[in-house]
């Protein structure tokens, strides 16, 4: 078991307890409740500094890709790397929308089969 710490008005508190048992993770927040599920850990593409233009909208691109993945019934093991790839592609252009990839983008071809 591990405890996640956070700052609350300048005071370090432990409001969240995280427990991982084999393939099942449990997160408990005081006063809110407990969530139990699978813990998936993945990696994202490393973007060379010369290609990194603007991170504006990268989080929105990630969430949008997760929502698309859910609608497309993509398995979670594929969903998170796909969303990370969409966010990474977005960071290669200026602005929140200009860098969003199309379904024909070659970086996404192995996700969208």
UniProtKB/TrEMBL annotation:
<dbReference type="Pfam" id="PF00294">
    <property type="entry name" value="PfkB"/>
</dbReference>
<keyword id="KW-0418">Kinase</keyword>
<protein>
    <submittedName>
        <fullName>Kinase</fullName>
    </submittedName>
</protein>
<dbReference type="InterPro" id="IPR052562">
    <property type="entry name" value="Ketohexokinase-related"/>
</dbReference>
<keyword id="KW-0808">Transferase</keyword>
<dbReference type="InterPro" id="IPR011611">
    <property type="entry name" value="PfkB_dom"/>
</dbReference>
<feature type="domain" description="Carbohydrate kinase PfkB">
    <location>
        <begin position="44"/>
        <end position="101"/>
    </location>
</feature>
<dbReference type="InterPro" id="IPR002173">
    <property type="entry name" value="Carboh/pur_kinase_PfkB_CS"/>
</dbReference>
<dbReference type="GO" id="GO:0016301">
    <property type="term" value="F:kinase activity"/>
</dbReference>
<dbReference type="InterPro" id="IPR029056">
    <property type="entry name" value="Ribokinase-like"/>
</dbReference>
């Amino acid at each position: 078991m591990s405890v996640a710490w956070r700052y609350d008005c300048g005071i370090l508190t432990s409001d969240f307890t995280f427990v991982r048992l084999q393939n099942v993770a449990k997160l408990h927040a005081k006063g809110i409740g407990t969530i139990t599920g699978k813990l998936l850990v993945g990696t994202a593409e490393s973007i060379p500094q010369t290609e990194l233009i603007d991170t504006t909208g990268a989080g929105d691109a990630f969430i949008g890709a997760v929502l698309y993945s859910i609608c497309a019934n993509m398995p979670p093991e594929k969903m998170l790397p796909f969303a990370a790839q969409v966010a990474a592609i977005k960071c290669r252009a200026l602005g929140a929308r200009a860098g969003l990839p199309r379904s024909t983008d070659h970086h996404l071809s192995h996700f969208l089969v």
